[in-house]
Fold:
Amino acid sequence: MPNITVLPNTELCPEGAVVAARKGQTICEALQAAGIEIEHACEHACACSTCHVIVREGFATLDSADEGEEDMLDRAWGLEPHSRLACQAFVKGADLTIEIPRYSRNLAKEKKA
Structure:
């Protein structure tokens, strides 16, 4: 079972984390299953850029982003060459290390009650 190492993020994961992921699961699904509340304003429809992550290790093991994802990534804050939308990046058999950027373009965040 591949692992996703999440680098520390002040809001979502201050200590960082190692998340077990199933092959074929998206990065977003794996993080949510582990209790890491990554933003996903469009509910995994590739219609926003709020689940933007930077893949620091293992980028080459992911399938290439399609044109729709590339278009949405152009709207992401802090875009880098190894940026992906977590809802569109499917885990293969290799471990990944990701960084969740500090900011997103989501203008309306809902707080948990």
Q: What stands out?
A: Confidence is low (pLDDT under 50) at residues 107-113. The first strand starts at residue 3 and ends at 6.
